[in-house]
């Protein structure tokens, strides 16, 4: 399956930086290309970690289930990022579930190749460290926000984080370039759906954001930055 993939699809992506064309070819020859529709799972929490992945196109969300059965969104996977790299964390099972938010194309490799890839190809090692570091930093930020910020500040901080991760400039402002619901936003900001709906409605009236079905556009990014700051 990997032989059907052209090297040009991935040469600009971080894991492949600095690799010769022959090395890229060797990596792709081991890959399987998979397409997932929105709502499908790439892997499930607790299942044996037999594959690791790279998102070529689309959007994937990583989430965990609490003991009460609630879903907690941990992070969003943008195109070009490795995910499902359980072995890099010393795990034999996936610690979370990867859910497809928008139709996605992924490359998958057997987990047994993770260690050889990291050893042979510097780009994979660097990208894995950068990815894990960024996720740890994001988790620390969210813990601090939950402990120190009011609800409105948490919601605005969450929106700013999503804009930085997947913002797309439009004539109206900066659109979060993947489907996101108010329920998703409530889970990411640690508040209720009612509070998120009330807050977004107020910001819409003030011209700060525009919220449609599964789409949020930030019309005044600077005002959102102001709203995210602790009030002195």
Domain tally = 2
Terminal CA distance reads 58 Å
The rounded Rg comes to 19 Å
Major beta sheet summary: 6 strands, antiparallel
Average of per-residue pLDDT values = 85
Strand content: 25-35%
User: Count of DSSP E strands?
Assistant: 10
- C-alpha geometry: globular
| CATH level-four homologous superfamily name of the largest domain | Jelly Rolls
Q: Assign a percent range to the helix content.
A: 25-40%
CATH-derived architecture of the largest domain:
Sandwich
In the predicted model, the low-confidence regions spanning at least 5 consecutive residues are none
> Which fold name fills CATH's third level, the topology of the largest domain?
Jelly Rolls
CATH class of the largest domain, anyone? Mainly Beta
Structural class: alpha+beta
SSE sequence, one letter per element: HEEEEEEHHHEEHHEEH
Number of helices: 7
Describe it for me?
With 232 residues, the protein is of the alpha+beta class. It has two domains: 2-134, Jelly Rolls; 149-228, Arc Repressor Mutant, subunit A (Orthogonal Bundle). It has seven helices and ten strands. The strands form two sheets. Strands 1, 2, 3, 4, 5 and 6 form a six-stranded antiparallel beta sheet that branches. A hairpin with a 2-residue loop joins strand 9 and strand 10. It starts with 20 loop residues before the first helix and ends with a helix. The model has no long low-confidence stretch (mean pLDDT 85).
């Amino acid at each position: 399956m990997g032989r059907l993939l052209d090297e040009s699809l991935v040469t600009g992506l971080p894991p492949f930086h600095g690799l010769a064309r022959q090395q890229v070819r060797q990596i792709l020859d081991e890959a399987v290309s998979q397409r997932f529709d929105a709502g499908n799972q790439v892997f499930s929490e607790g299942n044996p970690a037999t594959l690791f992945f790279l998102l070529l196109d689309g959007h994937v969300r990583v989430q965990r289930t609490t003991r009460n059965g609630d879903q907690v969104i941990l992070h969003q996977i943008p195109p070009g990022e490795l995910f499902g790299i359980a072995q890099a964390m010393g795990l034999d099972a996936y610690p979370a579930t990867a859910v497809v938010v928008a139709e996605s194309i992924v490359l998958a490799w057997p987990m047994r190749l993770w260690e050889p890839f990291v050893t042979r190809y510097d780009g994979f090692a660097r990208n894995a460290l950068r990815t894990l570091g960024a996720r740890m930093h994001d988790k620390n930020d969210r813990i601090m926000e939950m402990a120190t910020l009011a609800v409105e500040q948490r919601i605005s901080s969450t929106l700013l984080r999503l804009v930085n991760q997947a913002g797309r400039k439009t004539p109206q402002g900066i659109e979060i370039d993947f489907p996101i619901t108010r329920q998703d936003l409530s889970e990411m900001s640690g508040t209720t759906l009612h509070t998120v709906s009330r807050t977004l409605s107020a910001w819409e009236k003030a011209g700060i954001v525009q919220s449609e079905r599964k789409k949020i556009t930030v019309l005044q990014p600077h005002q959102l930055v102001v709203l995210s700051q602790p009030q002195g």
